[in-house]
Amino acid sequence: MAESAYNPARDSAIIGDTAIPARREACVVGDRFVALTKIEEVQTVSQFVASLRRGGPVPERVLAVQGVSQFELDYLREELNKRQAAGTEIVPPVSPRLGRDIVHKQREPNVLLADLTRTGSDAYTAGLWLHADNELFGDHQTGQHVQGLVIIEAMRQMFIAVFETAYGRHNSHRDFYVVWDSIDITFQSFLFPLPASIHCEILEEDLSDESRAGYRMRMRVLQNEVCAADATVRFGGYDQSRIEAAETKRARRAVHEYLRARAAATEPVGVTS
């Protein structure tokens, strides 16, 4: 049986985790992830800057992890310079982020992947990149871990990115509309707003129908070599003209059936047409 994200027996074994011996590096997250500052080695951007302004210690290196955008990176550099700490290195999150044509998103904060790399004939990997203003954080961030909905969306962007890289770019004269048929996902451990990677393997590829490229892919989200989630997804990449025509046909039928049902419900009892 697969493990769940929370396993009391397993998690009790890590209570005595080894402390970090030195504080030469500061781990800084975006203000969105303030809950993670229960861990004493972690600070938000605002907490770190406030500490600097109070005359707190200046680290040799700032590890800027999830939720820290270029805007915050510039802010950190400015504040370090005020403390005459120009030599302090700021290690930014993974980059570059992926473009609109690869992940099918229109706003940069909603992109969850960076640095897509082909690692084998049918294998790809990408870094997880969390922007503090991502659409999924607006009303659904509880606790210290990253919510499951964010993981599912990251996987959705990953299989679309792999599809576009493996197939779409070789058919650049066509516009594709990706429709997923199923996803089977297991959450195995909590994922925290720290560096993580998403690994994708193409398991099946069906290109027999020219208007539909069918795929089955497996994806895993890893953090510190621990699998946070494992999923298998099946989907098709359709020519946009074909899927739009089918969608419009079904939408029209749904509207007409709804209106017929409404008319039947409001028709006086005993009146027949």
TrEMBL record:
Annotated A-factor biosynthesis hotdog domain residues: 103-235
InterPro entries: AfsA_hotdog_dom
The organism's place on the tree of life at top rank: Bacteria
Protein name, UniProt field: A-factor biosynthesis repeat protein
